[in-house]
Amino acid sequence: MKSLKIVALAASLTFMVSGIAHAKAPYIAHRSQNVDLSQSGCVDNAVALMKENKFSPVLTSKGTYVVGSYGENKAIIVCQTPKGLVSFIASGPNFSVATCIAKGLLKNFKAEEEGTDTDTGTGTGTGAGTSKGCPFS
Length: 137
What we know:
Strand content: 15-25%
Helix content: 25-40%
Oligomer: single chain
Number of strands: 5
Largest sheet: 5 strands, antiparallel
Shape: globular
Strand order of the largest sheet: 1-5-4-3-2
């Protein structure tokens, strides 16, 4: 639980420092789950997920997190595979859209190596819901 708090704090600080959270995007939603991937595998899956869902530009930093924009919304996927954790944070001007994006990233992220049939997901929420402006609606 301590590592989850540290990851959430680090992700929030990354949002503030990188300009992802700004005056037009006052709402932030967060989800996380266990992950059974290498660090590079986690980042590769994060990049693929964002590109598949039309986030742009998709940027990576130091092989730890992936950042993307979808309209006025921003998202970051933070891979902390040594801790067995991946976090999904979204910000935007509408809380329901930010929540939809965070849930959608969680639901669609491949958290295991191919061929592994162990369920490691522990994130909250089962679906992205329907919110206008959310790519996962």
